[in-house]
Write a structure and sequence with these properties.
126 residues
Length: 126
């Protein structure tokens, strides 16, 4: 069961990143697909599965925020990623602000993945 949940989690990580990258490109180019219904709904489904699988894995391996430093770092990174992603795709007042938030969100996303691989709270910054 653990490996099935882990594989679901990894698939959701890849789909979420690909979707965010595509939506960011659409934002930068002004593509109307950014406001399509499927584009607005599908990321929430994927990210909900991602979060649910992450919580399930944390419980299965008994690694919790504030008990395991690398998990705490991932949760903090997730909060930063969500805030930056919201600024990039919805709330940024100008295109340069949105582009900067998009780049920062991608950086944070890669860092979160590196924390997962290394189990080090600094990830690739170590």
């Amino acid at each position: 069961m653990y490996y099935a949940i882990k594989h679901l989690h990894v698939v959701c990580v890849v789909l979420s990143a690909a979707g965010f990258l595509l939506r960011g490109m659409w934002m930068l180019t002004g593509n109307p697909m950014l406001s399509h219904r499927l584009t607005r709904v599908l990321p929430h489904i994927i990210d909900s599965l991602l979060l649910l699988s992450a919580i399930t894995l944390a419980v299965m391996i008994a690694q919790y925020p504030f008990a395991a430093d690398w998990v705490t770092a991932k949760v903090g990174g997730l909060v930063a990623y969500v805030l930056l992603g919201t600024l990039a795709l919805k709330r940024g007042p100008t295109k340069p602000v949105r582009a900067g938030a998009f780049a920062a969100a991608l950086f944070v996303y890669v860092w979160i993945v590196s924390v997962a691989f290394t189990k080090n709270p600094a990830g690739f910054l170590a």
